[in-house]
Amino acid sequence: MKERIEGFVTAVHRDRYEVYVNGENFYARLKTGVYYSDEREEEFPTVGDNVVLAYNSTGDSLIIKTKERKSKFSRKDPDIGKGEQIIAANFDYVFIMMSLNFDFNLKRLERYITASWQSGAQPVIVLTKTDIAEDVEKKVELVSQIALGADIYTVSTITGEGMEPLKKYLEPDKTIVFLGSSGVGKSTFTNYLLGREVMETAGIREEDSKGHHTTTHRQLFVLDNGTKIIDTPGMRELGMWIVEDGMDYSFSDIISLAVQCRFSDCTHTGEPDCAVRSALQNGTLTDARWKNYLKLQRESDFQAEKESRNKSRESKKTNKKMVRNSSKVNSKMEEW
Ligand SMILES: Nc1nc2c(ncn2[C@@H]2O[C@H](COP(=O)(O)OP(=O)(O)OP(=O)(O)O)[C@@H](O)[C@H]2O)c(=O)[nH]1
Ligand SMILES: [Zn+2]
C-alpha cells in the first residue's frame, strides 16, 4: 500500500497540482475514483488547500482528500451547476491593498472588506503609495469609518515607510492573500517581503498536453520563517468580480459586528455576548438597517435554495460539466 501523507497545494495547473510536503514541492494528480465519480465526495483542491495524498516516489502522487477549509474565497459561477469556484483557501489574513492616489475608492473598499469578512479570514487594510499621495490623514479617517474591526496601515514600498508594523502578521503558519486592483502595488509589496526577489523569476516550466512548454508562475510562496503568501491570478480576477457583481456589499458594519459575537454561529436572537444585539440596544446599529440586512439575507438564502434544487435535478449532467470547466479554469490560470 502507498504511504499516506499530508501537504498543501501551492499551485494548480491544468490537471496537475503542486503540493508542498515537509519543505519539498512535488507534483500530484487527483484520484479519479474520488474526485470524478458521480457522487463526487471531495471538493476540487485549490491553492492553499490541505490535502491527503497517496505518496508515489517514482511519479505523480495521488490526492485522495481535500481537508476542511478554515476560510475561502469563492465565486459563483453560473457555468458550473453547483456554481462555486474556489479561488483560494485556508488563509488567515486578507491584505486589502488600495492606493492612496488614483485608485482610492471607498465604495470598492467597503466591498472588499465585506467579502473578506465573509471569507472567514481577517481583513487588514493596507493603503499604499504614501510617498506620492495627498491628504493621507483625511483619507485614513474616511477609511476608518467603514473599516469597523479591521486594522488600517499606510505604507510605501518604495521608501519602506510604514512597512515595519506589518511584520507582526508574518508569523509562521499564517497565510496571507492580497486583494486589490491592478497597479496598487501587490507585486512590489510581495517582493519587498521576499527580500526584493523578482516574482517573475519564480515561474516554473511545465509541459502542457500538446507537449508545449509554458511558463507558469508560483501561486503560493513560503517565506523563510514559514509564512505563506498566496498570489494567484484568480485573486486578481476576484477583485474585479467583487467590484462588478450586483450584490450589495454595504453591510460591512453588520458583518464586522457579527464576528465579534461570543459564538461563531450566533443567530443574534438572544445568545449571551451578542455584539449585534448590544449594538441594536445602544443605537450604534439602527433597527431599520438591521431589518434591511435580514431581508437581503432571506433573499440570498432563497436564491441558494433554488439553485441547490436545480442542481440536484441536473446532478448527473452537472458533474460531467464541472470536470470540463475545472480544466478550463486551470488552463486560464496558466495563461497568466
Ligand atoms: N510611488 C510608489 N509606487 C509604487 C509603490 N508600490 C508600487 N508602486 C509602483 O506601482 C506600479 C504597480 O505596482 P505593482 O506591484 O506591479 O502592482 P500590482 O498590484 O501587483 O499590479 P498587478 O500585477 O497588475 O495586479 C509599479 O510601477 C510600482 O513600482 C509605492 O509604495 N509608491
Ligand atoms: Zn450575535
UniProtKB/TrEMBL annotation:
<comment type="subunit">
    <text>Monomer. Associates with 30S ribosomal subunit, binds 16S rRNA.</text>
</comment>
<dbReference type="InterPro" id="IPR010914">
    <property type="entry name" value="RsgA_GTPase_dom"/>
</dbReference>
<keyword id="KW-0378">Hydrolase</keyword>
<feature type="binding site">
    <location>
        <position position="266"/>
    </location>
    <ligand>
        <name>Zn(2+)</name>
    </ligand>
</feature>
<keyword id="KW-0699">rRNA-binding</keyword>
<dbReference type="InterPro" id="IPR030378">
    <property type="entry name" value="G_CP_dom"/>
</dbReference>
<keyword id="KW-0862">Zinc</keyword>
<keyword id="KW-0963">Cytoplasm</keyword>
<feature type="binding site">
    <location>
        <position position="261"/>
    </location>
    <ligand>
        <name>Zn(2+)</name>
    </ligand>
</feature>
<dbReference type="InterPro" id="IPR004881">
    <property type="entry name" value="Ribosome_biogen_GTPase_RsgA"/>
</dbReference>
<keyword id="KW-0690">Ribosome biogenesis</keyword>
<protein>
    <recommendedName>
        <fullName>Small ribosomal subunit biogenesis GTPase RsgA</fullName>
        <ecNumber>3.6.1.-</ecNumber>
    </recommendedName>
</protein>
<feature type="domain" description="EngC GTPase">
    <location>
        <begin position="89"/>
        <end position="236"/>
    </location>
</feature>
<keyword id="KW-0479">Metal-binding</keyword>
<feature type="binding site">
    <location>
        <begin position="128"/>
        <end position="131"/>
    </location>
    <ligand>
        <name>GTP</name>
    </ligand>
</feature>
<feature type="compositionally biased region" description="Basic and acidic residues">
    <location>
        <begin position="300"/>
        <end position="317"/>
    </location>
</feature>
<dbReference type="InterPro" id="IPR027417">
    <property type="entry name" value="P-loop_NTPase"/>
</dbReference>
<feature type="binding site">
    <location>
        <begin position="180"/>
        <end position="188"/>
    </location>
    <ligand>
        <name>GTP</name>
    </ligand>
</feature>
<feature type="binding site">
    <location>
        <position position="274"/>
    </location>
    <ligand>
        <name>Zn(2+)</name>
    </ligand>
</feature>
<keyword id="KW-0547">Nucleotide-binding</keyword>
<comment type="similarity">
    <text>Belongs to the TRAFAC class YlqF/YawG GTPase family. RsgA subfamily.</text>
</comment>
<keyword id="KW-0342">GTP-binding</keyword>
<dbReference type="Pfam" id="PF03193">
    <property type="entry name" value="RsgA_GTPase"/>
</dbReference>
<feature type="binding site">
    <location>
        <position position="268"/>
    </location>
    <ligand>
        <name>Zn(2+)</name>
    </ligand>
</feature>
<feature type="region of interest" description="Disordered">
    <location>
        <begin position="300"/>
        <end position="336"/>
    </location>
</feature>
<keyword id="KW-0694">RNA-binding</keyword>
<feature type="domain" description="CP-type G">
    <location>
        <begin position="80"/>
        <end position="238"/>
    </location>
</feature>
<comment type="function">
    <text>One of several proteins that assist in the late maturation steps of the functional core of the 30S ribosomal subunit. Helps release RbfA from mature subunits. May play a role in the assembly of ribosomal proteins into the subunit. Circularly permuted GTPase that catalyzes slow GTP hydrolysis, GTPase activity is stimulated by the 30S ribosomal subunit.</text>
</comment>
